Amino acid sequence: MRALIYGISGQDGAYLAKHLLDLGYEVWGASRDVASARLDRLERVGVLSRVHLISASLGDFRSVLSSLAVAKPDEVYNLAGQSSVSLSFEQPVETMESVSTGTLNLLEAIRFTGKESKLYNAASSECFGEIESTGATEETPFRPRSPYAAAKSAAYWLVSNYREAYGLFACSGILFNHDSPLRGERFVTHKVISGVARILRGNTEKIKLGNIEIVRDWGWAPEYVQAMWLLMQHPTAEDIVIATGESHSLRSFVDHAFQVAGLNWEEFVDYDESLLRPTDIMMSYADPAKAARILNWKAQIKMKEVVKRMLESEMERC
What we know:
This protein is an alpha/beta fold.
């Protein structure tokens, strides 16, 4: 089996590449400019020398056609595009183009070539907007509250449309927050963990955070890429919520990180109003029952263990 991962240099791309290689796949990875791309995540999971890398931009239809022709994939994983909610407020056009237009180019390229490549699309829990404690399912309406969420929503419906209109095997995993030691620096979880590690090494600089009362469902990224693969092996293309089913406040995440370090978080964290977004989601709850039912997938690693593993890894690297 041959797989092509767009966005292979990111957190999910690196873990997915490793998972597929362990399953015996030939793995191709596309990045906008391989020569200048940060490939340290692939190095950290030990697969950089085992993947075939090509330059390709989802924003360029010709580039997408060329990458598909070179890789000849049985499975295509679309993990590319601008991935920061906060940055999407600063770069809304780039976010829309890289996420929604990029997904459209990929769908159209697969349809145009006539090759029966299966497509996985990375959707996001941000599409739902505010979610009450009953938890979002695959039937919950989208109410996006950021340019990023709007772009991901458009991409989701494009995938659905091409599946219904042209019979493509195209599916979306609606992933809730998932973290690991490979999480990017723009994400608050990385900021918290790296901040705690610096404090343990003697740095007295406080961690500045915005609203710590937000509630999210945090899972473990290496488990989530397994769900992506399982979704592609299902006999029919399905859209599925991937989450732990347990939500916690950012305050709880911070508190636990400092507990693991043997510290009181209130001594080391400052509120910074400038970090607030123009609009934000306060509550985010998930109901991942369909994933358990049709994929036999259930998250084993929950928030507290995620925090522990991230902090241990950060301290080992220092």
